[in-house]
Specification:
Length: 410
């Protein structure tokens, strides 16, 4: 009997590839017309765009491994840059290509506009949390954690707050310090220098994983059903029944808000955070000094240079921008960019439930459910990380490994 994977985002893709690669027959159900879920390409106004800007890090090992497995070469598909945080107000943290931890130490010490006192205090703080294994005695908000550490100066506004919002999509006053510490552990705090590298996609998101994975699966006789929303899930002792069809096991790899209608026992009560991407087309010669810039605008947080004058501004987390109509939001962001040139075209893409809100003490469900043949995958089930592609991929692989044992016995 086949194993069913419900949801063709990066978690579901990872699960389907893991199962197929181990010789287990798979049916992958995806409600949308394309694979990729929240990290997918979309076709609008005759252009291929991404539904949101995704920044990957060298620390995303499972994701990079999965890409290689389906024939997508990360060396070709990403620009690799040593981490740089640069903003419009002149702040710059650039990590040189030195072995860790000298890269971070040098980056901090050479950062302009930060007092020596603050640099040294920050270097000590980083060293202390490293010695503590990035484990906090209790989970508190990132704001409270930074206050306790005396991180109240330039680095807070220009480094920690933007990094927290980018990584957790949750403002520092509400974000979990433990999840932020986990992100720091595997990036800035990693002993592997390459983990801190920024990986900026050279191609649209479909080409990074969803499209090559779809081809890879189909070439190996996986049954990939696009535009196929699962309506009903029932389970017996010897099988799982999906819309009347029998399977050995099922992996639910949907976003958390979609689990309740399929398997109410696994419902969560998360709050969510939105993200808007505002694409602005300027003349082809317009370029940013670095492809990722912290805008520090009233609304806009980051801007990504997509090449040929196309800039993608990112607004994350709840705020009064949500009430602005698309045209007004685009005009406001163009004003914040202040390039002295009007945008010839714009498009706003809003994801109202882009990610779960990564709050202190947030409860994360296990991969195993109350039914031995039903497993959960998805970014929200990987409790070490906030909502990330890497968490999604790791969760999918883990669910596949657990489902295989049951499926083999069926
Ligand atoms: C705008 C934006 C920017 C982001 N930026 C970053 C970033 O920079 N770095 C990073 O690491 N992460 C980022 N993320 C988070 C990342 O995209 C997610 O963590 C990841 O894509 C989640 O994957 P998933 O497979 O767990 O869930 P999803 O991608 O939500 O996949 C679930 C899939 O299940 C399908 N589905 C739901 N119900 C059914 C059903 N009944 N039957 C069949 N199919 C169903 C859905 O259509 C969907 O395709 C960002 C997210 C957004 C939205």
């Amino acid at each position: 009997m086949r194993t069913a994977v419900i949801g063709g985002g990066w978690a579901g893709i990872a699960a389907a590839v893991e199962l197929t690669g181990s010789g287990h027959p798979v049916t992958l159900f995806e409600a949308g017309r394309l694979l990729g879920g929240r990290a997918r390409s979309i076709y609008l106004d005759g252009r291929t765009l991404d539904n949101g800007q995704h920044i990957l890090l060298g620390a995303y090992r499972d994701t990079l491994d999965l890409m290689r497995r389906v024939g997508a070469d990360p060396e070709q598909l990403f620009e690799h840059h040593p981490l740089q945080v640069i903003d419009r107000q002149g702040f710059r943290l650039s990590l040189p290509k030195l072995p860790a931890p000298f890269n971070l130490a040098w980056g901090l010490l050479s950062s302009p506009g930060v007092s020596w006192r603050e640099k040294i205090r920050t270097a000590w703080w980083m060293e202390r949390i490293k010695r503590q294994g990035f484990r906090l005695p209790r989970d508190i908000s990132v704001a409270a954690w930074l206050d306790e550490a005396g991180q109240t100066g330039t680095l807070r506004r220009h480094l920690w707050e933007p990094l927290c919002l980018a990584a957790l999509n949750t403002p520092v006053t509400q974000a979990s310090a433990q999840l932020f510490a986990n992100v720091l552990r595997d990036s800035l705090g990693s002993p592997r220098r390459q983990d801190t590298d920024l990986l900026l996609p050279r191609v649209d998101f479909g080409q990074l994983l969803p499209e090559p994975a779809g081809r890879w699966l189909q070439a190996r006789n996986a049954d990939v059903r696009l535009g196929c929303r699962v309506r009903q899930l029932a389970a017996d002792t010897d099988c799982v029944v999906i819309d009347g069809e029998r399977f050995a096991a099922a992996i639910l790899a949907t976003a958390p808000q979609h689990v309740a209608s399929l398997w109410p026992a696994c419902a969560t009560d998360y709050a969510f955070e939105p993200i808007a991407t505002i694409y602005l087309q300027f003349s082809a010669t317009t370029a940013l000094p670095f492809p990722l810039l912290n805008l520090l605008g009233r609304h806009g947080q980051w801007v990504v240079d997509r090449g040929n004058g196309l800039l993608a501004c990112v607004v994350s987390g709840h705020g009064d921008w949500e009430a602005l109509p698309d045209d007004e939001l685009a005009t406001t962001l163009a004003g914040e960019l202040d390039l002295g040139e009007a945008a010839a075209w714009h498009k706003v893409i809003r994801e109202k439930r882009a990610t779960f809100s990564a709050r202190p003490g947030i409860r994360r469900p296990a991969c195993r459910t109350s039914h031995p043949r039903i497993f959960l995958a998805g970014d929200y089930t990987w409790d070490d990380y906030p909502a990330t592609l890497e968490g999604a991929v790791r969760s999918g692989r883990r669910a596949a490994r657990q489902a295989m044992a049951i499926a083999s016995a069926a």
